[in-house]
């Protein structure tokens, strides 16, 4: 181990180690829980760990969440902590003190994880102050969003909007797979605009939250306030609009807000997991509105970009990741940035816990589970991405209904590889390709394997793809 790292560890042992204990726990839970649950309940938690690790206090935003976490997750969290630490850990839950950080607040009310909450807390946002909440995460900025071929267009368009909102590219529609930085990018737009114009009314909202706002306004008959709130914005950032599917009332309200905002030259930035015409169960008139400004994709990051992201993020954590280690990790963790972050967290925690310097060997050990899973199985998702990359089409076209040969053929190739390289059945594969019939998959498999015998060029391409996928 290097001197530098040693002294840094020695200087603040409890904070660093406590931090990594909690991070290791979070990492574990991220693997166990469905993503949605993890993001909603676990990710927002912050933890305070006592010097001797005997007690961990988790801070949650409000009473409702506290009850829920205690009922649903406290047992498991406790078990994971104890397993990681190797000794009993007492878990407590507390409500985050309002308008104050955990560190500076004198005495937050703390309750043991299994005790009833004694103190009633006023948790409902009052509507007046909620109207001015931006819901922006100030940590997500352009500065810490690494640029690469995969996000260049989207990033440039987003910066343009942040600089001169209400003019070009309205609405801006950003789409791409999970964990590619869509949410980060829209927050960056909001943060940049507010930095330039602190008075601007900016709101970030996840589409699901918008749905629940509509429902609430409906139940409480507060549509006037709802409208006033939304229609008065200068910038509306709305995330994951695919969640509007089948929500008629919400779609109608969103349509109204949309029209009102565009009319007064306010800007709208949207994200989605697919391009507008690929969206299912959303009214045609909304889809055509979505597509009326600029639509840009974020693609999975290429190798160099993955390396840059790793090195960058390690620096943000005050750790130095040698380039060769970053390459090793980037070659093995390919699908998205969220997974890269997960891998990095594991490596950092492993390095801190074991007081070892970051090396390829250490990375290999820290990521053992992940690497062996990857070696054992290739996912259909991975095949779709790799094939789409290779033939320069959109990943979304793997599930789209489009038929031109330039798209249909790579799709058939991907189906063929899915059958060849995974354990999935024909109907399962059909399902993963936008709900296609198993006979369609069978047809593709037969066609490509027959052609493979005849066409040297195709055979060559398939060979490259197989090698890439097998790693
Ligand atoms: P999405 O909304 O597309 O699912 P997110 O915006 O939540 O993805 O990104 C997942 C994680 O990866 C976030 O922590 C985000 O900060 C990080 N991230 C994504 N893209 C980049 C990038 N280009 N540079 C740095 N961090 C990134
Ligand atoms: Mg997102």
UniProtKB/TrEMBL annotation:
Chain intervals for the UniProt region annotation (Domain III, AAA+ region): 135-351
Keyword DNA-binding carried by entry: yes
Region span, Domain I, interacts with DnaA modulators: 1-101
Assembly and oligomerization: Oligomerizes as a right-handed, spiral filament on DNA at oriC.
Classification lineage: Bacteria, Pseudomonadati, Pseudomonadota, Betaproteobacteria, Burkholderiales
Sequence positions that bind ATP: 179, 181-183
SMART domains with a match to the protein in the record: AAA (SM00382), Bac_DnaA_C (SM00760)
Note on domains (UniProt): Domain I is involved in oligomerization and binding regulators, domain II is flexibile and of varying length in different bacteria, domain III forms the AAA+ region, while domain IV binds dsDNA.
Annotated TM spans: none
Keyword terms, alphabetized: ATP-binding, Cytoplasm, DNA replication, DNA-binding, Lipid-binding, Nucleotide-binding
Domain Chromosomal replication initiator DnaA C-terminal: residue ranges: 379-448
Organism: Ramlibacter monticola
Record GO terms (molecular function): ATP binding; DNA replication origin binding; lipid binding
Intracellular or extracellular location(s): Cytoplasm
GO biological process: DNA replication initiation; regulation of DNA replication
Protein family: Belongs to the DnaA family.
PROSITE patterns to which the protein is assigned, alphabetical: DNAA
Keyword DNA-binding: yes
Chain intervals for the UniProt region annotation (Domain IV, binds dsDNA): 352-471
Function according to Swiss-Prot or TrEMBL: Plays an essential role in the initiation and regulation of chromosomal replication. ATP-DnaA binds to the origin of replication (oriC) to initiate formation of the DNA replication initiation complex once per cell cycle. Binds the DnaA box (a 9 base pair repeat at the origin) and separates the double-stranded (ds)DNA. Forms a right-handed helical filament on oriC DNA; dsDNA binds to the exterior of the filament while single-stranded (ss)DNA is stabiized in the filament's interior.
Location of the AAA+ ATPase domain: 168-302
Any GO CC annotation of this UniProt entry: plasma membrane
Record's protein name: Chromosomal replication initiator protein DnaA
């Amino acid at each position: 181990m290097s001197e530098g790292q040693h002294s840094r560890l020695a200087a603040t042992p409890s904070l660093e180690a406590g931090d990594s204990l909690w991070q290791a726990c979070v990492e574990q839970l991220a693997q166990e829980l469905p993503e949605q649950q993890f993001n909603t309940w676990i990710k927002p938690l912050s933890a305070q760990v006592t010097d001797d690790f005997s007690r961990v206090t988790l801070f949650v935003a409000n009473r409702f969440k506290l009850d829920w976490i205690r009922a649903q997750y406290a047992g498991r969290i406790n078990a994971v902590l104890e397993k990681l630490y190797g000794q009993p850990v007492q878990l407590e839950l507390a409500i985050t003190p309002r308008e104050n950080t955990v560190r500076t607040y004198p005495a937050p009310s703390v309750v043991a994880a299994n005790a009833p909450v004694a103190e009633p807390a006023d948790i409902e946002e009052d509507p007046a102050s909620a109207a001015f909440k931006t819901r922006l995460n100030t940590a997500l900025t352009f500065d810490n969003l690494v640029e690469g071929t995969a996000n260049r267009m989207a990033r440039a368009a987003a910066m343009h909007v942040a600089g001169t909102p209400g003019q070009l590219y309205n609405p801006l529609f950003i789409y791409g797979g999970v964990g590619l930085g869509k949410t980060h990018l829209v927050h960056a737009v909001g943060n940049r605009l507010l930095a330039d114009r602190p008075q601007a009314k900016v709101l970030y909202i996840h589409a699901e939250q918008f749905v629940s706002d509509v429902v609430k306004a409906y139940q409480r008959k507060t549509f006037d306030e709802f409208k006033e709130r939304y229609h008065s914005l200068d910038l509306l950032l709305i995330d994951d609009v695919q969640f509007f599917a089948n929500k008629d009332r919400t779609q109608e309200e969103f349509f109204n807000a949309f029209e009102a905002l565009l009319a007064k030259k306010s800007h709208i930035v949207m994200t989605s997991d697919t391009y507008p015409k690929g969206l299912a169960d959303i009214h045609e008139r909304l889809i055509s509105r979505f597509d009326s400004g600029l639509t840009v994709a974020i693609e999975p990051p290429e190798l160099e970009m993955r390396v840059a992201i790793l090195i960058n993020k390690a620096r943000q954590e005050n750790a130095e990741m040698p380039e060769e280690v970053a390459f090793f990790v980037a070659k093995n963790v390919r699908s998205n940035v969220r997974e890269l972050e997960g891998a990095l967290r594991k490596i950092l925690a492993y390095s801190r816990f074991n007081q070892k310097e970051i090396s390829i060997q250490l990375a290999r050990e820290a990521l053992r589970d992940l690497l062996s899973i990857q070696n054992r199985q290739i996912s259909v998702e991975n095949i779709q991405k790799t094939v789409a990359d290779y033939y320069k089409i959109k990943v979304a076209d793997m599930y789209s209904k489009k038929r031109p040969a330039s798209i249909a053929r790579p799709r058939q190739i991907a189906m063929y590889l899915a059958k060849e390289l995974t354990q999935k059945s024909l109907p399962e594969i059909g399902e993963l390709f936008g709900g296609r019939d198993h006979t369609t998959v069978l047809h593709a498999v037969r066609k490509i394997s027959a052609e493979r015998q005849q066409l040297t060029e195709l055979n060559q391409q398939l060979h490259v793809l197989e090698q890439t996928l097998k790693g």
